[in-house]
Amino acid sequence: xxxxxxxxxxxxxxxxxxxxxxxxxxxxxxxxxxxxxxxxxxxxxxxxxxxxxxxxxxxxxxxxxxxxxxxxxxxxxxxxxxxxxxxxxxxxxxxxxxxxxxxxxxxxxxxxxxxxxxxxxxxxx
Length: 125
Description:
With 125 residues, the chain is α+β, with helices and mostly antiparallel strands. Helix content is 16%, strand content 33%. It has 1 helix and 11 strands, in the order αβββββββββββ.
């Protein structure tokens, strides 16, 4: 094997691993079932339920919304909430508590997931 073959092979491997890393989480494990506790979602913030692949927000007291954790940019899973912003770790797309894009590269918001509130419990529909 000559030097050129090794360099080209290494570059191709690096590019492939980079693309695979961006798609990490795109094939999330099956969602858990059962209700979520409304008390786990702070007012003016959000909580990520990774086992359900959802992020639940509560912009104002008692007003809950849920969204898929899959970032519409390249399929990474959002994994952090900073104040009132939901953050994707791959390219730093940020979403507000309505799931709308604050900063890209994502061009569309997080996909809504129906949620029902019953007393102190949240059920994903």
